Amino acid sequence: MDVQNVKPYAADGAKGEQVREMFDSIAPAYDFMNRAMTMGVDRLWRRRAVDAVAAAAPARVLDIATGTGDVAIALARRLPEARITGVDLSEGMIAVGRRKVAAAGLEGRVELLQGDSMALELPDACVDAITVAYGVRNFEHLLQGYREMMRVLRPGGLLCVLELSTPRGTITRPLYKLYTRYVIPAAGRLVSRDVRAYSYLPESIAAAPQGEAMCRLMREAGAADAAFRSMTFGACTLYLAHKPL
User: Fold this and answer.
1) What is the DSSP annotation of 23-72?
2) Are 222 and 244 in contact (CB under 8 A)?
3) Could you tell me how far CA 41 lies from the centroid of its own chain?
4) Confidence (pTM)
5) Which of 4, 60, 208, 228 is 20 to 30 Å apart from 137, CA to CA?
């Protein structure tokens, strides 16, 4: 199934609106669930993405699908001279993120805005790097989202995408399916009270392009040098590409 047709609540209706509603619903429990369902390994994955971006020494970074701001805050700490803008559909997630930015004392360098990644309110070629962590599978139109990233990224700029994926190993794959299809949804219902949100998670992961298929989509949108690296037995994948000079 095409990931664009996998929606949180209903087969009909715009995916973007449903994603916004879902994240507004789970925003208070989002950080706790992230740590719990990955057993803290999400911090390692995020650090790998931040390392890749920091190596490019960007002055202006756009964090799309910023959620509660974890990646934006990590980038600001790692790149003390950079300005970070985070954009997310969900005002509920942004509200949590703004409190975290304030608590970290980063209000002068990290700005979190409610916005649509399908139509960013930013000029062409205005950022040096773009990050997206666990967000592209939630896009209403994945190719359009990548094209919009290429529009606002300067020539030579870095695109860094971190996304959940499905392990391929004969032992890890069935264990992963059991965990994501039964354990995570049950825990999500108890903690967030949203019956569908944590069932949508494994469905969207399974349907999203992975590995070379994701790289082909990035290239179709205009990216160059698209490559990927699997982490933690394939449960997460880091994608890196550049906008051609």
Assistant:
1) HHHHHHHHHHHHHHHHTTHHHHHHHHHHHHHHTT--SEEEEET-TTSHHH
2) yes
3) 15
4) 0.95
5) 60
Sequence-distant (≥ 6) Cβ neighbours of residue 238 within 8 angstroms = 45, 48, 49, 52, 160, 161, 162, 228, 229, 231
Residue 195, CA atoms < 13 Å, CB-side half-sphere: 2
For residue range 60-100, list pLDDT tens digits in order: 999 999 999 999 999 999 999 999 999 999 999 999 999 99
CA dihedral of 117, 240, 62, 151, whole degrees rounded to 10: -60
Alpha helices in 124-183 (DSSP H): 142-152, 172-178
Q: Are 129 and 158 in contact (CB under 8 A)?
A: yes
> Six-digit token pair at 139?
């896009």
Report helix, strand or coil for 17.
helix
Question: 49-65 pLDDT, tens per residue?
Answer: 999 999 999 999 999 99
From the centroid of its chain, how far is CA 148?
15
Residue 169 CA neighbour count, 13 Å, CB half: 11
Q: How far apart are CA 139 and CA 141, in angstroms?
A: 5
Residue 233, SS3 per DSSP: helix
In the chain, where do the E strands start and end?
60-64, 83-88, 110-114, 127-133, 153-164, 224-231, 236-242
